[in-house]
Automatic annotation (TrEMBL):
One of its GO terms (molecular function) is histone deacetylase activity, NAD-dependent. The keyword Transcription does not apply. InterPro entries: DHS-like_NAD/FAD-binding_dom, NAD-dep_sirtuin_deacylases, Sirtuin, Sirtuin_cat_small_dom_sf, Ssirtuin_cat_dom. This is Deacetylase sirtuin-type domain-containing protein. Keywords: Mitochondrion, NAD, Transferase, Transit peptide. GO terms for cellular component: mitochondrion. Transmembrane segments: none annotated. The lineage of its organism: Eukaryota, Fungi, Dikarya, Basidiomycota, Agaricomycotina. Residues 198-207 have a biased composition (Basic and acidic residues).
Length: 383
């Protein structure tokens, strides 16, 4: 049997601040400016969960690199797709928890860093983006800038955003690959599980939501999921064929990337002149191998992120141990001040539209309801 484990960082001591980390903000922005100038419009950006923290979505790891919730046990891919009564229980657990965890992700708005990354794309400084995040916030930020452009200057296609690990905004069935929006499937779940739906609406009304992970899952210790109803594929049923298991369009632990996504990500790295890595520990190999490929091929890699990462000892990677958004904003302020054109005007119009929301229970703070409180909710245990 193959043992599947949650990605972790290699053990090692925390490194002292390096020369780049010690730069004052203006010089850090100047270093980024020089880096992007050398890229000549062919810089590839790779982002991770740290970029979405200011949108109220908790990262997997804290600033020390440790897993933020070591007791959290996600559903593994082989468990979700197992066509047995045991697999059915795993699906009930996943979809019940995700039913509660999806709305906070769905309703999240781009924070300043999402806006700044979209600005790099719109200005042609870093046209391609690979994100490990499944929260759909990078596309939302890109849409803000596109909508600010005069219609006659809008590009024929949206910016290039490859969602390496998929998106929570869509679901599909495994057997026939019928695609469905997550909002439609969420409505099906609500209709089939009115008690859960009522409590979910109450938690939304009061703001007392359970801790939500970046993948839209929540942890509910002690909850009984056996009565939760999970529908099979509605489209299959409408077409009169045997329905199959419905899965969100995200890559689960133990699941491999699709060949298309894998090949596209490798191609984007190959065609880039250099790599800018933002807000990630690169704990998952699917992302780390892209940075490793770039570094080993001699491409310049600049990483701006808080906390230890899997690439800290990788030759050819320069790292600023600081919040990426702060460096990007200082840099972009100078760019929009010294340049002109419709893209610059569009960036100026949205540069301050990012929201900042502290995620519940980040570094011990926040107003969200904890999983321990949810454990005490009677209807979870009784049903």
């Amino acid at each position: 049997m193959v043992r599947i484990s949650i990605p972790t960082l290699p053990p090692g001591p925390l490194l002292p601040p390096n020369e780049l980390t010690r730069l004052p903000p203006t010089l850090a922005a100047a270093h980024l400016a020089d880096f992007l100038e050398r890229g000549r419009g062919r810089t590839l950006v790779i982002t991770g969960a740290g970029v979405s923290v200011d949108s109220g979505i908790r990262a997997y790891r804290g600033k020390d690199g440790h897993y933020a919730n070591p007791n959290y046990k996600p559903i593994l891919y082989h468990e979700l797709v197992e066509d047995t009564p045991r697999g059915e229980l795993f699906r009930k657990r996943y979809w019940a928890r995700s039913f509660l965890g999806y709305p906070p992700v769905r309703d999240a708005r781009p924070n300043p860093t999402h806006i700044y990354v979209a600005a790099l794309q719109a200005l042609g400084l870093a046209p391609n983006l690979i994100t490990q995040n499944v929260d759909n916030l990078h596309p939302k930020a890109a849409s803000l800038i596109l909508s600010s452009l005069p219609p006659q200057t809008r590009p024929p296609a949206p910016p290039s955003i490859l969602e390496l690990h998929g998106t929570l905004a869509k679901v599909h069935c495994l057997k026939h690959h019928h695609a469905q929006s997550r909002d439609d499937f969420q409505a099906e779940l609500a209709g089939l599980n009115p008690i859960w739906d009522g409590e979910a609406k109450e938690s939304e009304r009061t703001g007392r939501r359970p801790r939500t992970n970046p993948d839209g899952d929540v942890d509910l210790p002690g909850a009984d999921f056996t009565s939760f109803v999970v529908p099979t594929c509605r489209i299959c049923a409408e077409e009169g064929i045997k329905s199959s298991i419905v899965k969100p369009n995200v890559v689960f632990f133990g699941e491999t990337l699709t060949p298309h996504v894998r090949d596209t990500s490798l191609s984007l790295v190959s065609s880039a002149s250099q790599i800018l890595v933002l807000g990630t520990s690169l704990a998952t190999y699917s992302a780390f191998r892209l940075v490793k490929q770039a570094a080993e091929s001699g491409k310049e890699v600049l990483m701006i992120s808080l906390g230890p990462s899997r690439a800290d000892k990788l030759a050819g990677v320069d790292k600023m141990e600081r919040k990426a958004g702060d460096v990007l904003r200082t840099y972009l302020d100078e760019v929009v001040k010294t340049n002109s054109g419709p893209e610059v005007d569009a960036v100026k119009a949205v540069l301050d539209q990012g929201v900042v929301i502290t995620p519940p229970d980040v570094e011990g703070h926040g107003g969200g309801v904890t999983s321990e409180k949810w454990e005490a909710v009677e209807w979870f245990r009784e049903r």
